[in-house]
């Protein structure tokens, strides 16, 4: 069967979405309720996290594997596929030695879906083949059907890649896509499960709708008949919207409107609130009204569509904010309770101490003994308070570090929702600056010195963290670092300068070089610190680029250090010199 490329290109995103839906419906046996936006997804994530911790406490490996799998699904739900993959692999390491099982097949299927989303076609196909083989060995036909649907998606994606880059994936074809869809339909018919038959008909109908309209409409109407009989609200709405799209392509807006009215009626009477379906309904309604010349109605539905999108974004934002507020309130209450307990303990200690003093005062004539006892008590109390202060400082540093990690995690989650590349890059740069500050607090927490930072340890960790963020894992910087202990106030400004320089190098210098290199020097001459960073790039004119946010931040931090800074040759080497600050612990406390 030969299929024109022009309709295949248009059907790419629709078909991938369909195959993803089929994969989740058939192979995972997940809930048939739609995902909800906003705080609900984060609440489910937190709940599953607690369940995972409980499973770890039991020591049951299969239960731990299942909870790792669920954690992966939760991260897929919020769009954090990288973290989801880590949880799936943890579950996979437990399940694989135990042999074939439905749970192992589901893991392979999710990993295959992850690779396809990353554009790793070969790895995705291998994982999905393993899933299908696993399901066949366990005799679960329902899951095999889901695997065939996923394989159809693989061949569809491979065919499109080969059309775009001839010779890249010649083994993938549309005929194979249709073959796997047909296999899925055969299994659905053999199972005699109306819901499964209707779903496969919906998938095939949506596929054929791109080339053979009548055949596609026939499959969709068959699915609609079954969904109506089974009273499957989600399916009825999906099929109705697909038929409306089909009739629009056939230039029959009045028939499209009839199917839209069915979708609208079912959604209203069932009070079904899936935002994705409602948004698509409003969007198609707007097009239908335009085709029929009802411009006023078209404008109304277009406004409803955009309002729904805005509500979804607000709900997601409020969900994240609600999570932050809940965590903040919980921590605040814990801190208040701890402070109250500590105050009560100190009052009790003071009361006991006063009672002891009264008892000592009664012993007239034993002045030397009393003085010795008082001195001894004060000495022990001084040691106790000193120990407490040290523990409190360490606890404070630990909490600051945890807060940085929580904020970084939440920003990373939020970035998963963003589609604008510029916004995602801006959040990445903010995360790098926060990691620089978090690294300072980590060193404070691990160090015996509570005010000084060891630059010989701090600079390599900071630089290599930035390189990892921009995927320059292989780049090995050359360091020339003296053993310098710098006050935290100056170390923070210096660290943020280095962070901005590494970010600029990763974005502008390294992409232009076949073998990127980075030289970093930080030395002390008497009381002067000299920093030099050379990325061997083409350089730039600092006067022309002076409005850049990165350069403004570098200048601001250099001024905070009261240092002398400049770019050389003609802007790929940065040099900074400043006076080292020496502050004693007594001065710092004062």
Short description:
It contains 20 helices and 7 strands.
Describe the protein's architecture and organization.
The chain is of the alpha+beta class and 590 residues long. The protein is built from 20 helices and seven strands. It has helices at 5-27, 39-58, 61-77, 81-95, 102-117, 121-138, 141-164, 174-191, 194-208, 213-230, 233-249, 253-269, 275-292, 295-362, 367-417, 421-446, 455-469, 488-509, 549-560, 585-589; strands spanning 452-454, 478-481, 485-487, 519-525, 528-534, 564-568, 573-579. A five-stranded mixed sheet has the order 2-4-5-7-6, covered by helices on one side. Strands 1-3 form a two-stranded antiparallel ribbon. Helix 3 (61-77) runs antiparallel to helix 4 and helix 13 (275-292) packs antiparallel against helix 14 (295-362).
